[in-house]
Amino acid sequence: MTLAENPLKFAWLEVTGLCNELCDHCYADSSPKGTHGTMTVRDWLRVISELADMGALDVQFIGGEPTLYPSLPALIRHARTVGLGVEVFSNMTHIRAELWDVFRECEVKLATSYYSDNAEDHDAVTKLRGSHKRTRANIEKALSLGIPLRGGVVAVRPGQRVHEAAQDLLALGVEQVGGDRTRAFGRGSRGAAPTIADLCGHCAHEKCAIGPTGDVWPCVLGRFLKIGNVQESPMPDIWGGLRMGEVLADIRAVLGDGAQFCTPPQFLPMCGPCSPCVPSVGHCDPREADGAATIAATA
Q1: Where is the Radical SAM core domain (predicted)?
Q2: Which of 22, 93, 147, 282, CA to CA, is 20 to 30 A from 189?
Q3: CA-to-CA distance for 265 and 275, rounded, in angstroms?
Q4: Element (H, E) at 111
């Protein structure tokens, strides 16, 4: 499939597998034992330029915890220089002074996960003592600096107070609050092998993800469907290559046109309510779903 037939508008850039938290539901299986992988700063700069040349509009830096990646400021500045919009998905516990300056200078948007209005409940999910206090304080700081920030409340544990968490974010001034459930990927799968049936069916449609070893995936959840590697081939060759066609065909064979309704999304900055989510969520229509799925609609 050519670039004209399937334009690439958005890419997740997973710059590190290192994270200071150890959430049970982490789809990327990141942890304090993770690494920055094999991608060099030069590799990332080249890939960002290639994405811009291909017509991409936005990138989202993710991890692991992207703020732990030492060269994140350089990558953000380069992305803005070549005309890309930038969002950073962070747990908001480790933002050094230089990053605040870069966020403001480069008009970066932020996104974060928030698990409860109760510190003990939140920290039980992240397995990092004090994470709730730091995340909440940095949400307040971002908003005070005029940095756009959206929040996602993921239902992970029984009695987690997800609705109270959403209300807390709204009270702080967060205007966009989404809801989600644990996805059956990474540690969230509890050891089960991922399948195409667990995806939404819109993977690789105008979007892709690139990991810290250079692997290209159809989305952050579809990392078991490797399309190519940017350390071996340029991004345009991967996007228009034979393997890309095979992956698209495999996804279409299982999921057809993909999900049509979803819970309020957390991962894509260009998505609004009713954008696709994975079928494994179970109850995908936000007009009827309960629990975390209705956070955005009822908050």
Answers
A1: 5-213
A2: 93
A3: 7
A4: strand 109-113
Burial class (CB in 10 A: 0-12, 13-18, 19+), 134: middle
160 DSSP assignment: -
Kindly report the pTM of this predicted structure: 0.88
CA atoms within 13 A on the CB side of 114: 35
Distance CA 49, CA 235 (A): 10
Alpha helix locations (H) across the chain? Answer: 41-53, 72-81, 97-105, 119-126, 131-144, 162-172, 235-239, 242-255, 295-298
Asked whether the beta carbons of 187 and 150 are under 8 A apart, the reply is: no
- Phi, psi at residue 217, to the nearest 5°? -120, 160
Residue pair 62/12 in contact (Cβ under 8 Å)? The answer is yes
Please state, in angstroms and rounded to a whole number, the distance separating the CA atoms of residues 95 and 112. Answer: 12
CA pair distance 72, 152, nearest whole angstrom: 22
Residue 125 in tokens: 């999910």
* Contact present, 181 and 291 (Cβ < 8 Å): yes
Residue 176: partners with Cβ closer than 8 Å, 6 or more residues away: 150, 151, 296
Residue whose tokens read 């070549």: 82
DSSP string, 21-79: ---TT-TT--BTT----S--HHHHHHHHHHHHHTT--EEEEESS-GGGSTTHHHHHHHH
Q: How many CB atoms lie within 10 A of CB 90?
A: 26
Cβ-based neighbours of 91, under 8 Å, separated by 6 or more? 19, 20, 21, 65, 112, 113, 126, 131, 135
